[in-house]
Structure formats: structure tokens, C-alpha cells
Specification:
- By secondary structure, the protein is mainly α.
- Among the domains are: about 5-110, lambda repressor-like DNA-binding domains (434 Repressor (Amino-terminal Domain)); about 115-180.
- The chain has 13 helices and two strands; from the N terminus they run αααααααααααββαα.
- It has helices at about 10-20, 25-30, 35-45, 50-60, 65-80, 85-110, 115-125, 125-135, 140, 145-150, 155-165, 195-210, 230-250, and strands at about 170-175, 175-180.
- The chain has a two-stranded antiparallel sheet.
- Strand 1 (about 170-175) and strand 2 form a beta hairpin.
- The longest helix has 26 residues, at about 85-110.
Length: about 270
């Protein structure tokens, strides 16, 4: 599914979802308890979904809270018949789109582009990403065999993972050493594999918490709090800005000595 913030109409978002999930309008209408004939009329522009119906559709598409707010704004714009109100909503929508575009560009930077099948292969095995990141460290790049001890892999397992990275065009060998590594891979948050990728890294974090590998500079933090939805959204934006700042620090780092993992959860 394409990022929803590139769309100006909620119908486009629904069509993109149906297409990417090999589903149908009928199946989505049934899941949301909306009469199929009315659903079809809305999708052809002859009617509008109510805010409640659109909310049900967003939940069926498993959109995040922030994304739901955006889709509901598009629905409100589509239903509005008041010129000043429509202009007000358009300005709000454009502001949200511009902010997401800015953050997306900052987060992605110069990302390596992989095809759909390559993306599936890369994110299906967390060990592949681990080996890939360790290869950005000079000492591991010069002697890839050291990765076996670092990750607890057999030499055969490591060789298989190195071969996959080579097939993906992410590394190149020369004389037994890796002499080139494509560093940045981006997985869109709406990609079907995004949730599984998050799960894989959280499982890895749990393993780290219960192991003896923790280092003095490692940091783990957990907290629960109460607030309203708007405040939660503002906290999320703080997290996203912090990630952008962290990426800038990493880019300016004078030397690469080790690979580290950062995970954030807000729910």
C-alpha cells in the first residue's frame, strides 16, 4: 500500500488498500457492516461515507491512529459543502502532508531501492539485517568470519547469509573481504512485512535483556502514562524528530566501531 499521505481523496486510499491486499470492495464492505451497494456508490463518487463508516473502514485496514485522523479529515473535506470550511480543511491536510513528506525525506535519506521480492527476502530473516549492518563496520568487512562469533552463527549459516546479501546487490566481495556495502534499506510502515519486522526486533531486544551481553552504555526504558490522544500524537512526533536527530549524529560519526539497535514503542 502506498503511503496514505500522498493521497488527496480517501477513495484513493481505499482503492490502494484493496489492490495491495488482493481484496475487494465487497469484502471490505462486509467487514465494516456497510451495505455493498452503498459502498459501491461511495466509491464511484455518488455518495459519501459518514465519519463513523470511514472510521470502521480505517480500523478494518488496520491503520494507525495518526493515519486514521488524516483519513477522517479527507472524509470531512469530501462531505463539506461550505467553501470557507473546505479551504480550512485543505490547509490542515496540506500541512500534515508537508510535515510527513519532510520527515520521510529526512528518515530515508539516500536509501537503497529493492524490488518487492528482494524486500520480502531481506526482511524475512532478521539475521540478514544483522549481518548487513555489521558489514558496515570496517573490521567485520575485512574479516567477515568474525561475524560468526559475534552473532553465534555457524560458518555455513554465515556463508549462506553473505551469499543472499550478494544476490541482493547489497555487498560485493574481493579477495575474501567485503569491499562494498550498500548501507540503508527502508521499509515503509504500511508494508505488509513492517509489523513482522517490528516483532522480530522486539524479540531480539528481549533476548538481549535476558542475556549477559549487556554493556554499560546500553539503555532500556519503559513507562506508562495517561493523557489524551492529541498529546499522544505530539509525543509520537517528538520520537520521530529524535530519530531524525539520531540519524544525523550517526551520519556525522567520525568512525564506525560497532552496530547497535534502537527500538521505540508507543501504544
Amino acid at each position: 500500500m502506498n503511503r496514505i499521505y500522498g493521497h488527496q481523496c480517501y477513495r484513493e486510499i481505499i482503492r490502494a488498500f484493496v489492490k495491495s491486499h488482493d481484496s475487494s470492495h465487497r469484502a471490505l464492505a462486509t467487514a465494516c457492516q456497510i451495505h455493498t451497494s452503498y459502498f459501491s456508490r461511495v466509491m464511484t463518487g455518488d455518495a459519501e461515507f459518514s465519519a463513523e463508516q470511514l472510521f470502521k473502514i480505517c480500523k478494518a485496514m488496520e491503520l494507525q491512529e495518526e493515519d486514521i485522523n488524516f483519513v477522517l479529515m479527507l472524509g470531512e473535506l469530501s462531505r463539506s459543502s461550505h467553501h470557507e470550511h473546505k479551504q480550512f480543511l485543505k490547509q490542515r491536510i496540506e500541512a500534515v502532508q508537508e510535515e510527513h513528506l519532510r520527515l520521510s525525506q529526512q528518515l530515508q535519506g539516500e536509501m537503497t531501492r529493492l524490488g518487492p521480492e528482494q524486500i520480502d527476502l531481506y526482511f524475512s530473516d532478521i539475521r540478514l539485517a544483522k549481518v548487513h549492518m555489521l558489514l558496515t563496520v570496517p573490521r567485520f568487512r575485512a574479516y567477515p568470519q568474525q561475524i560468526s562469533r559475534r552473532l553465534g552463527l555457524s560458518e555455513h549459516e554465515l556463508q549462506k547469509l553473505l551469499e543472499r546479501l550478494h544476490q541482493l546487490g547489497l555487498i560485493r566481495f574481493h579477495g575474501g573481504a567485503v569491499h562494498h556495502v550498500e548501507q540503508s534499506i527502508h521499509l515503509d510502515e504500511h508494508h505488509p512485512l513492517s509489523l513482522q519486522n517490528h516483532k522480530n526486533w522486539r524479540i531480539d531486544a528481549l533476548h538481549h535483556l535476558t542475556s549477559s551481553e549487556r554493556q554499560p552504555h546500553d539503555y532500556h526504558f519503559s513507562a506508562t502514562f495517561t493523557c489524551d490522544a492529541d498529546t499522544k500524537g505530539r509525543i509520537k512526533e517528538i520520537f520521530k524528530s529524535a530519530i531524525v536527530q539520531a540519524q544525523s549524529l550517526v551520519a556525522a560519526c567520525p568512525r564506525v566501531e560497532q552496530a547497535y539497535v534502537l527500538t521505540l514503542d508507543l501504544y
